[in-house]
Design a protein that fits this description.
The chain is α/β, with parallel strands linked by helices and 264 residues long. It is built from eleven helices and seven strands. The strands form two sheets. Strands 5-4-3-6-7 form a five-stranded parallel beta sheet, sandwiched between helices. Strands 1-2 form a two-stranded parallel sheet.
Length: 264
C-alpha cells in the first residue's frame, strides 16, 4: 500500500480474498468495477479469478508455488537443500524438483535437508511438501537436464551450476530464472526487482510473468485506398459468396461498382 501511495496511485482499497475479486469484477456501492484483475492470491482468490474471467480480464490462474533447482557436483548440497526447503515451507502443496547428474549427489542433498529440518520452524509444512510433492531427477548429461526443465516448465528455476549463463539460452519454459550459486530464489520473493507474479503448474510453456504488457491493449488499424479495395474486391466477394454471406459480398461489390463508374 505504501508503494502504491508513493507511486502516485490515487484509488486504493484495503480488501482481499475472493470477495475482493468479486467487488472488483462487478462493483459494489463503494468500489467501481474494473477492466482487469491481476496479482497472486490463495486458492480462493485463484478460484474467484477463474469464475470472473471473461467478465473481466485476468493475468493468470496461479496454483501452488514451485521451484526446480538444477545442480551439478560443484553446488554445495547444503545450499541446494535450503533452497528447496525455502519453497517447500510455503505450502504443503508446493512442488520442489531437484535436477542433477548423480544419484549420490541427490542423496547428499536429501541428507542436508534432514539436517536443516532439525532447525526449521516450519518443519511440518516443509516435510509434507517434500514428501508428497518433491522429486529428484537424475540426468545423464546437461542436455537431458535442460530437457527435463523444459518439460517441467517451473515457476522458479535455479541454475545452480558453474556455467549458468551458458545454459540460460537453452531454457525455453520457466517463469523466473535465477543464475548461479549466489542467486537464491528468496531474493526474487523480496528485493530482486522483476515482477514475482509467475506462471505455475507448467503454464510457463505458454505464459510469462506479470509485466507492464498485461496493462497494454492493442487495436488493429486498417485503411484501404480506392485502388487497394479494387485490387482485393474480387477475392473478398468470392470468399463471402462461398460462405453464403450475401451482405458481406455486397458491401464490397457496391464500392467496387462505384469505383468503376467513377473511373469511366
Amino acid at each position: 500500500l505504501y508503494a502504491c501511495s508513493i507511486a502516485g496511485v490515487t484509488e486504493i482499497y484495503t480488501v482481499g480474498g475472493a470477495q475482493a475479486v468479486a467487488a472488483l469484477a462487478y462493483g459494489t456501492a463503494s468500489i467501481a468495477p474494473v477492466a482487469k484483475i491481476t496479482g497472486p492470491g490463495n486458492a480462493y482468490v485463484a478460484a474467484a479469478k477463474k469464475i470472473v474471467s471473461g467478465d473481466v480480464g485476468i493475468d493468470m490462474i496461479a496454483g501452488p508455488s514451485e521451484v526446480c533447482v538444477v545442480a551439478d557436483s560443484a553446488a554445495a548440497p547444503s545450499l541446494v537443500a535450503i533452497d528447496l526447503m525455502a519453497q517447500a515451507e510455503h505450502d504443503p502443496l508446493a512442488t520442489c524438483y531437484l535436477v542433477t547428474f548423480d544419484e549420490a549427489y541427490a542423496d547428499a542433498v536429501e541428507a542436508a535437508i534432514d539436517e536443516h529440518m532439525k532447525s526449521s520452524t516450519r518443519a511440518e509444512i516443509t516435510a509434507a511438501s517434500l514428501e508428497n510433492r518433491g522429486l529428484a531427477v537424475v540426468c545423464p548429461d546437461r542436455a537431458a537436464a535442460i530437457q527435463a526443465v523444459n518439460v517441467i516448465a517451473p515457476e522458479h528455476l535455479e541454475l545452480h551450476v558453474a556455467d549458468a549463463m551458458e545454459l540460460l539460452g537453452q531454457v525455453r519454459n520457466a517463469g523466473a530464472i535465477f543464475l548461479g550459486a549466489w542467486t537464491p530464489e528468496a531474493v526474487g520473493d523480496y528485493v530482486a526487482g522483476p515482477n514475482h507474479t509467475l506462471p505455475t503448474g507448467g503454464t510457463a510453456r505458454y505464459a510469462s510473468p506479470l509485466s507492464v504488457d498485461e496493462f497494454v491493449k492493442k487495436s488493429s488499424v486498417i485503411q484501404y485506398s480506392p485502388q487497394s479495395l479494387r485490387n482485393d474486391a474480387d477475392a473478398v466477394i468470392a470468399i463471402a459468396t462461398h460462405e453464403g454471406l450475401w451482405a458481406h459480398a455486397k458491401s464490397v461489390e457496391l464500392r467496387r461498382d462505384l469505383l468503376e463508374k467513377g473511373r469511366n
